[in-house]
Amino acid sequence: MSARIIDGKAIASALRERIGEEARAFAKAHGAPPCLAVVLVGDDPASQVYVRNKGRATRESGMISIEKRLPASASEAEVAAVVRALNEDPSIDGILVQMPLPVHIDAHSVINEIDPAKDVDGLTETNAGRLLLGVQGLRPCTPEGCVILAKSVRDRLEGLRAVVVGRSILVGKPLSLLLLAENCTVVMAHSKTRDLPEICRSADILCAAVGRPRLIEGDWVKKGAVVLDIGINRVEEDGAARLVGDVDFEAAKERAEAITPVPGGVGPMTIACLLRNTLIAAARRRGVRGPAI
Ligand SMILES: Nc1nc(=O)c2c([nH]1)NC[C@@H]1CN(c3ccc(C(=O)N[C@@H](CCC(=O)O)C(=O)O)cc3)C=[N+]21
Ligand SMILES: [Mg+2]
């Protein structure tokens, strides 16, 4: 039996529809729609595409999108100054600094300049700490999207064994914490993990976020598992550029109950959750409760 393909694109589109309604209601109540500022340093082609897509999605959801571009030669102090100006600007609700930053800039320092109330990526020390503590804060978008997709297959995640392969700050670590908050039993696996195939086979929910094309093979997947493929790897195959995940999709779908495709799985959820965080940040900054979506 072939797995059900989790249609992240459709789920994200439905979520963005509801966010759009909330954004319009917000604009009516507060005189202006929520506003997201994206800071892009340098001219990495993939980043340009992502930022353009984010801007379009933001406007489609009835929010305002602002872009601040700096040359690749910008100093850390210059990038930090842009972030601080956005912090001070009362018309800005959300700030995202597009990763990766040029190597001469310390990403952690720059991210930490973001006002935690506007940190829609959930990456500042304050929001990471709030996630660890399980108190109100802004959660990272890709992990949040993963939990929504897992819940689209399983009503309750409680008691399920989740294996997260990859421990990045943007995805693996926060995803592990979010799944723990759902009462999953979480295994945090990574490049130094012994017996990785065996550990993956123990997963009811298998999350792959390592950035290695098709690392996870078909027989690493337990029959009936839910597979979330967070990898987005650009590879060249038969002379053509392709996008593949961290999971061998064709093989894994013969064993999984449900699996996310790449593209069209987790990626679109990241953007939808970014817009949701912008709405939440805009509401909380005005002292009202965020949307119940
Ligand atoms: N501060 C920061 N926050 C981020 O959240 C962040 C970042 N920096 N830097 C880059 C990564 C990557 N990322 C993606 C978002 C959407 C898709 C997405 O929508 N992908 C589509 C299309 C993929 C394509 O065709 O290229 C899909 O998977 O179907 C992918 C990747 C956010 N990131
Ligand atoms: Mg392999």
UniProtKB/TrEMBL annotation:
Give the reaction(s) catalysed: (6R)-5,10-methylene-5,6,7,8-tetrahydrofolate + NADP(+) = (6R)-5,10-methenyltetrahydrofolate + NADPH; (6R)-5,10-methenyltetrahydrofolate + H2O = (6R)-10-formyltetrahydrofolate + H(+)
What PROSITE patterns is this protein classified in? Answer: THF_DHG_CYH_2
A Pfam family it matches:
THF_DHG_CYH_C
Q: Where is the Tetrahydrofolate dehydrogenase/cyclohydrolase NAD(P)-binding domain?
A: 140-285
| Residue ranges of domain Tetrahydrofolate dehydrogenase/cyclohydrolase catalytic in the record | 6-121
- Keywords from the UniProt entry: Amino-acid biosynthesis, Histidine biosynthesis, Hydrolase, Methionine biosynthesis, Multifunctional enzyme, NADP, One-carbon metabolism, Oxidoreductase, Purine biosynthesis
Task: List this protein's GO terms for biological process.
Answer: L-histidine biosynthetic process; methionine biosynthetic process; purine nucleotide biosynthetic process; tetrahydrofolate interconversion
Q: Which GO terms describe its cellular component?
A: cytosol
Answer whether the UniProt record assigns the keyword Transport to this protein.
no
Pathway named in the protein's UniProt entry: One-carbon metabolism; tetrahydrofolate interconversion
Q: Where is the signal peptide?
A: none
EC number, UniProt record: 1.5.1.5, 3.5.4.9
Q: From which domain of life does this come?
A: Bacteria
Q: Which residue windows are coiled coil?
A: none
Question: What GO molecular function annotation could you give as one example from this UniProt entry?
Answer: methenyltetrahydrofolate cyclohydrolase activity
Please name the InterPro entries in this protein's record.
Answer: Aminoacid_DH-like_N_sf (IPR046346), NAD(P)-bd_dom_sf (IPR036291), THF_DH/CycHdrlase (IPR000672), THF_DH/CycHdrlase_cat_dom (IPR020630), THF_DH/CycHdrlase_CS (IPR020867), THF_DH/CycHdrlase_NAD-bd_dom (IPR020631)
Residues the record lists as binding NADP(+): 166-168, 232
Please give the function described in this protein's UniProt entry: Catalyzes the oxidation of 5,10-methylenetetrahydrofolate to 5,10-methenyltetrahydrofolate and then the hydrolysis of 5,10-methenyltetrahydrofolate to 10-formyltetrahydrofolate.
Q: What does the subunit section of this Swiss-Prot or TrEMBL entry state?
A: Homodimer.
For this chain, the family text in UniProt reads: Belongs to the tetrahydrofolate dehydrogenase/cyclohydrolase family.
Spell out the protein name for this chain: Bifunctional protein FolD
